[in-house]
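Run: sequence + protoporphyrin IX containing FE -> complex structure.
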Amino acid sequence: MLRGNRELWLAGLFCVLITGLYGVVVLWTRAIPDAGELFGHSIGILGFVLMLMTEILYSLRKRSKSAAFGRMSAWLQFHIFTGLVGPFMVLLHTSWKFNGLAGATTLLTVIIVFSGIVGRYIYTRIPRTLDGLEIEGTLSQEALKRARQLMSLWHTVHIPIGIALFLSAFAHIGAALYYATLSK
Ligand code: HEM
Ligand code: HEM
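>> structure
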């Protein structure tokens, strides 16, 4: 079971701190950090690494079935934390320009974050142990059945969006590095 909203508060706190740092850079340079310059580029790479961790780590833990790697609930909290902070950093990387493929990648990023928020809401409707296993008998069977159906419908939407997002992100990274960095 996910207890409380600790991961949401922590993610919020990190986003405020990162916004502060972004503000300092804006005041210092008197310009919006460019996506291809040191600060904008670094924040994009760091944010993308957090997004990759979001995509991979929770799924690996879910499939390992071994409690030795830590509780599922803690991994899901970490998933949500990196799934909010990573996209936020990537948003600051964009320099508020959303042309072409990079713009489409940003849109997919925003969609997956909103989809995650909806998924968290449905997920927490189902009573679970700390290892994420459902607890039978605490909800009426009808409500439990409905929540399970919604959760599996949600998975069939959320997972393909994630795949599309990373395909598009890798294409953007390849193109950006080639045209903005290597070919100069
Ligand atoms: C999901 C992750 C990412 C998203 C959504 C994203 C989005 C964007 C957006 C919207 C722009 C501005 C495009 C424009 O000028 O209209 C941009 C520029 C850029 N991005 Fe990313 N980015 C991501 C990750 C990365 C990563 C990891 C790198 C580097 C390894 C990177 C390198 C660049 C560079 C170099 C530019 C500047 C391109 C230029 O000046 O023409 N991006 N990105
Ligand atoms: C970069 C952003 C994100 C990516 C790429 C991503 C990707 C994924 C993937 C691939 C899964 C399927 C895991 C599996 O069943 O193997 C998943 C599940 C999930 N994600 Fe995300 N996610 C992101 C952000 C978020 C956010 C922001 C939240 C909540 C606020 C969230 C909440 C969830 C929940 C509740 C599950 C279902 C857990 C389960 O059924 O075991 N995700 N996510």
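>> summary
Residues 6-179 form one domain. Helices lie at 6-29, 38-64, 72-93, 100-125, 141-182.
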